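> example.struct
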């Protein structure tokens, strides 16, 4: 099997930054170039020969301080399809777990001379700190409740491919545990940049303080929040991040905020359903809605994830040798 190199879809630089730490701070052109290149990889990944050579000789390290089978596997597959050497560092059995500081970890990683470091961490800002201390490019695979940029990019790509056009003018309702969701924050930034109207739908206890300053409409009632929505993004209850009680009970939460066909009636007839996973069926979404082949984009989101991460890896490696690259 012969590795191939796919052309970039634009003569412009694929990415202007050395790192991808968040969606905040990007411009529409940055996002569109990444999505355009992702489009190329979606089609390529559906071919028999999925191997490319643009990252041959490069090293990718996945460093996940939090478990995430879906995201880690997606990055691993993306790196291998581009021809990179991929290393998965197990934090649970490493020196990091034995008390090594984040700065010590950065020094250790620098000695390995990786080209790209993909990091997930439980603390907001930890990935940004690590990016300041290493010599390679860093991709934020989720830090605390801060951001998860590649998830927002793959969500945008999923919508764009299904609808056949951009996000301009769409009404997007993000529902559920917004207070603890880095996915929600990245999507809010991206949707605003791309010209969509964003609503946050959740009980008051799950709306973060100051969210309205991000230009989001806030609703505590599902019927109002979903009215005439084009896209509905459901979020899981992140009980592992909750300290104290945020909802009366799971049963009551599902009754008021769980997405079923009855609540879906007020959205547009062709409204599409999304979920970043993993799903809690019967908690934030009904199984029949999640599995609706005409309305649900959940499986497509998983496929788009590999293509988006391929585009991001390639973009950052390209930016390392470019004189215009900046720290994000």
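> example.seq
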């Amino acid at each position: 099997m012969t590795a191939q190199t796919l052309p970039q879809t634009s003569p412009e630089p694929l990415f202007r930054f050395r790192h991808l730490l968040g969606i905040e701070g990007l411009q529409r052109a940055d996002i569109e170039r990444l999505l355009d290149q992702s489009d190329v990889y979606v089609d390529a990944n559906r071919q028999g020969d999925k191997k490319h050579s643009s990252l041959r000789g490069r090293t990718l390290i996945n460093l996940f301080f939090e478990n995430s089978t879906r995201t880690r596997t997606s990055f691993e597959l993306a790196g291998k399809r581009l021809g990179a050497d991929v290393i998965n560092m197990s934090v649970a059995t490493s020196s990091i777990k034995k008390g090594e500081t984040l700065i010590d970890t950065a020094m250790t990683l620098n000695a390995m001379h990786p080209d790209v470091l993909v990091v997930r961490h439980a603390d907001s800002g930890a990935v940004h700190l690590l990016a300041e201390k290493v010599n390679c490019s860093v991709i934020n695979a989720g830090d605390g409740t801060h951001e998860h940029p590649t998830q927002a990019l793959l969500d945008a790509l999923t919508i764009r491919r299904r609808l056949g056009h951009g996000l301009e003018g769409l009404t997007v309702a993000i529902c559920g545990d917004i207070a603890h969701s880095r996915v929600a924050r990245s999507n809010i930034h991206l949707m605003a940049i791309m010209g969509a109207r964003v609503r946050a739908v959740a009980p008051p206890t799950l709306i973060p303080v100051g969210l309205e300053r991000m230009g989001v409409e806030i609703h505590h009632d599902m019927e109002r929040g979903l009215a005439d929505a084009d896209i509905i993004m459901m979020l899981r209850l992140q009980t592992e991040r909750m300290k104290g009680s945020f909802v009366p009970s799971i049963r009551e939460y599902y009754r008021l905020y769980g997405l079923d066909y009855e609540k879906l009636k007020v959205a547009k007839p062709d409204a599409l359903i999304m979920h970043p996973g993993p799903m809690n069926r019967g908690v934030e979404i009904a199984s029949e809605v999640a599995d609706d082949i005409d309305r649900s984009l959940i499986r497509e989101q998983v496929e788009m994830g590999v293509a988006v991460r391929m585009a991001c890896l390639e973009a950052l490696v390209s930016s390392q040798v470019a004189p215009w690259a900046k720290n994000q």
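> remarks
The first helix runs from residue 28 to 45.
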